[in-house]
Amino acid sequence: MTSATRAVTTGANVPDVEALSRMYTLMCTTALADQKSVAESKAGRLQAAFYPIRGMEAVCAALGEVLGPRDRLVSTYRNLGDALAKGASLRSIMAELYGRRAGLSRGKGGPMHLQDPAIGFTATTGVVGSGLPIAVGLAMAAQLDDDHSATVVTFGDGATSIGAWHEAMNFAGLWQLPIVFVCQNNQWGEHTPIARYAANTDLAARAAAYSIPAQKVDGFDPMAALGALRAAVTRVRAGEGPVFLEFLHYRLTGHTGTADFSYVPQDELKAAMERDPAPAFRAWLLAQGHLNERQIADIEEQARLTVEDAFSYAAGCELPAASDIYTDVFADDTWVRSLHND
Q: Which terminus has fewer CB within 10 Å in the chain: N or C?
């Protein structure tokens, strides 16, 4: 058995073949789109910086399986996999990265502001930690409405040092809100390793201090991520209060698509690359007999075609008109009309 195969949990709660296929499809699509976005960013063809998610695909795939249409997801700027997990089309995601009118935010938000409320992809925030109080507000609304939905907020390890994180955790714990805090601990706060900016690197222990059940989970392992997220979402839907999940993995790229990351210790990066989620999951699926080579190849080819189609579509879409700068900003056009009257 290879190290890649061992990197995935074997347990009694393995989902059916259809679910495994969906998860691998999302992981492949995300990984390929991420790679292409980095290349386009380096070529200067995107309208804003791109934030790669390489190494986070396993958690994204698990989110795609456990979240329903009524559940809400608040993400961070490293959001490609989250958006796909919640059901956003890759075409609309890429159109936004290219700054095109067909994008999720009509080409005006870029990668920091992907959102589609119609599918519960409620917000993406560009300020570290700022999505946490937004998600708490959504969870409180769900509690007041008694709609038995879950709110999930994703964020990096660096956000746990922001004041808004502590405020959100305290509020959620006090009011027992239906929210799952998903911390993608990739060991780096931009260019700083976690041990250099956090006095206590046990982030799950920090959450437990707010009387919130907290768990560390292998973030490279899609089956471990699926089990933890399914249990957490089931708990919050049942009205049993919030959950904090700390997914431990490693950032396999630079902070942005064009950033140098030679500062990353090469032995650490090499060890993490051996657990690259999509290749590891592929090896496990084959070794366990869940999918055969033909099925795997079909999924990979479909992912490749989906990515090619999305980028081709996005690059050919029209740019926003100059007048679009005034739309989606005010509740009415009174202010805009006053400009014209002047």
A: C
